[in-house]
Amino acid sequence: MTLPSLISKHKDKELITRVKKTYSDISNAVSLSRMEGGSLNDNSIFFNPNNTHFETAQQFVKYFNGAKLCENMSQDNCSQFYYGIKYSKFYTDGGDAGVEWLVTYMPAIILTNGAILYVNQSHIPDCYGEETYEKHDENGRPILDADGKPVTATSLNTVCAYIYFDVNGPKLPNRFGQDAYYVQIEKNFLRPGVQPYLGRTSLENILSGNENFSYEDYKIGSEE
């Protein structure tokens, strides 16, 4: 193997190790929160749908020794923890140009090893309910009917909260499917987030022992 290939392989291995560690840390924290809430199989007790994102993060941060908590991007000394992260495949905001994931309102938990967790509290009572949404294709473009109106659908949402995470913080590559992922905390369990453009395949590979990244490169602001 050439030197650049060896360096790339080493960096991938380091990221994979960090992904496993961060996922394990989140899983352990969720388990501890259930125990503290007095239930071994009900995450809705801790991830209370009546909480704001920040209220949940304030409780969750205590399970990570030495971690720092930022309420949002505007908090003093916190802006460096909010930055663009590319999707694991070409994705738009509804138009034709590729965009990146950038969230400024979610609280961020910064771990001592440099990983960052972003907490998104769901507000569905008891983490169980139907919701109506506008359908989009796999690249984020709206699906329209014959009259040009958005097509809607109804689905059952069982998510108590989402935890997005970047295993090495602002350091590159800042891409879902490499150093960034997300998990869904549902009423009775935790699992990798289901959206493919947010790194689902890579995370499932890593957790199953496959340890292969799955992503496509694209340019921000360019068409597919």
Task: Describe the protein's topology.
Layout: H1 3-37, H2 53-60, E1 68-70, E2 85-86, E3 100-101, E4 108-110, E5 116-121, E6 129-134, E7 152-157, E8 159-166, E9 180-186, E10 190-192, H3 200-208
Antiparallel strand pairs: 1-4, 2-3, 4-5, 5-8, 6-7, 8-9, 9-10
Account of the 3D structure:
Strands 1-4-5-8-9-10 form a 6-stranded antiparallel beta sheet. The longest helix has 35 residues, at 3-37. The chain has 224 residues and is α+β, with helices and mostly antiparallel strands. It has one domain. It is globular. The protein has 3 helices and 10 strands, in the order H-H-E-E-E-E-E-E-E-E-E-E-H. The protein has helices spanning 3-37, 53-60, 200-208, and strands at residues 68-70, 85-86, 100-101, 108-110, 116-121, 129-134, 152-157, 159-166, 180-186, 190-192.
| Average pLDDT level | 94
Main pleated sheet: 6 strands, antiparallel
- Helix tally? 3
Describe the strand arrangement of the main beta sheet, using strand numbers: 1-4-5-8-9-10
**Oligomeric form of this entry?**
single chain
What structural class do helix, strand and pairing data support?
alpha+beta
Sketch the topology as an H/E string, one letter per element.
Answer: HHEEEEEEEEEEH
Note the main attributes of this structure.
224 residues
Compact overview of the structure:
By secondary structure, the protein is an alpha+beta fold. It is built from 3 helices and 10 strands, in the order ααββββββββββα.
